[in-house]
Design brief:
alpha+beta, globular, 6-stranded mixed β-sheet, 22% helix, 34% strand
Length: 380
């Protein structure tokens, strides 16, 4: 198909190594510009996904597909200043993929994060950057919108179909058919068409990530109505199986496994978005959270409680302005996802693609400001 770049599809090992050097050089150049040459650590990865697959069935399905995408994720540290920064880049075309931007951004973030300060435990207003928004979606929200999890009565949104689960300004959808997006595919590993699934629309739960097996299972399960919150036979459009992929190490396609439910290109849309500086001014006093790590549900996904550690790229907001950096690994967020999704006070429109570690989906996220979120000081 013509929605994937032939040059990227045919890139060999030598070309991949060259892209890795570009990412490294981007970080080194930025550090040198600021006369920082000692106590520096640069790490990360540059990855190319190249897929070719074919599918056939006894029902007459015979089709083939191919896909390619590139990503770079770089972390830098200035050990002497206890500073840490990250940068990332996602690309669909080789001539537009600039891994040195990821290296340069990571270095600049570490430079800006030097001599970070600690903050006490308490309830805060936060601006969650694209990475934290994506991390919370990938580890808490999207699993709760997975029909297999709903079927197991383990979703944080159990019984909530057709009801409000988030602020009315928030909409989320998954679309594996978009042109020029990293996780786009012509069809699933079940031989079914990919497409757009509205998951949350204006804050209301409107659909689920599904494959053919679980769609059919809930249609004939007498207990499914209580798990979903509606009679499955009456909401079949919300259960269309567009996400049945045999996932493996190469992001999605691997013939060895059975089709599971896998998100693709996940889009977070917001209404009433404002520029970033206006959002900071709106928050007044709080914290900009740029990167979190080790996000997981506590007390089970059903409860909706989660925790994560703020590991870098974060800053104190005072009197409507970003002031000092927050010390990395000095604070964690511990709250409830249903509470967080309903504490939104503002958003921006500047969506960035985020590829989470070990996850196949790419999540396009804006900045989202929330209030009254529990933070706990950690470390010495």
């Amino acid at each position: 198909p013509d929605y994937h770049d032939p040059e990227l599809m045919n890139l060999g090992d030598e070309g991949l190594v060259g892209l890795g050097w570009k990412a490294l050089e981007g970080a080194i150049k930025k550090f040198r510009e600021h006369h920082i040459t000692n106590s520096v650590i640069i790490g990360g990865d540059v990855s190319i996904v190249q897929e070719r697959m074919a599918i056939a069935s006894t029902t007459g399905i015979i089709a083939c597909d191919e896909a390619a995408s590139a990503s770079a994720f770089i972390t830098t540290m200035i050990e002497s200043d206890n500073a840490k920064g990250s940068g990332y880049e996602v690309g669909m075309r080789l001539n537009e993929f600039v891994p040195e931007n990821a290296g340069s951004s990571a270095a600049m973030s570490a430079i800006k994060s030097r001599h970070g300060i600690r903050m006490p435990s308490g309830k805060y207003k936060l601006i969650l950057g694209p990475q934290p928004v994506a991390d919370l979606l990938g580890n808490i929200v999207l699993p709760s919108l997975n029909l297999a999890v709903v079927d197991a009565a383990s979703s944080a949104f159990s019984g909530k179909y057709g009801k409000g689960v988030a602020d009315s300004r928030i909409s989320i959808y998954d679309d594996g058919s978009l042109s020029d997006y990293p996780m786009s595919r012509r069809f699933t590993c079940e031989g079914l068409a990919t497409g757009r699934t509205e998951l949350i629309k204006d804050g209301v739960l409107t659909g689920y990530l599904s494959n053919n097996y679980y769609r059919n299972k809930v249609l004939y399960d007498s207990s499914a109505r209580d798990k979903i919150g509606a009679e499955p036979a009456g909401i079949t459009n919300a259960l269309i199986p567009r996400n049945g992929f045999r996932s493996g190490e190469s992001m999605l396609r691997c013939f060895r496994g059975r089709p599971t439910i896998v998100p693709t290109n996940v889009m977070v849309e917001t209404s009433g978005a404002i520029p970033s500086d206006e959002l900071v001014h709106m928050v007044g006093d709080g914290i900009y959270i740029g990167r979190i790590w080790y996000t997981y549900p506590i007390n089970g996904l059903l409860a909706g409680d989660f925790t994560c550690t703020v590991v870098g790229d974060s800053y104190i907001i005072e009197d409507g302005k970003i002031t000092e950096p927050l010390k990395p690994n000095s604070i964690r967020i511990a709250d409830n996802i249903r509470n967080l999704l309903n504490q939104v006070i503002g958003t921006t429109a500047n969506r960035k693609p985020v590829l989470l570690w070990g996850s196949p989906e790419v999540i396009y996220s804006p900045d989202i400001a929330v209030q009254d979120i529990n933070l706990y000081s950690i470390g010495g």
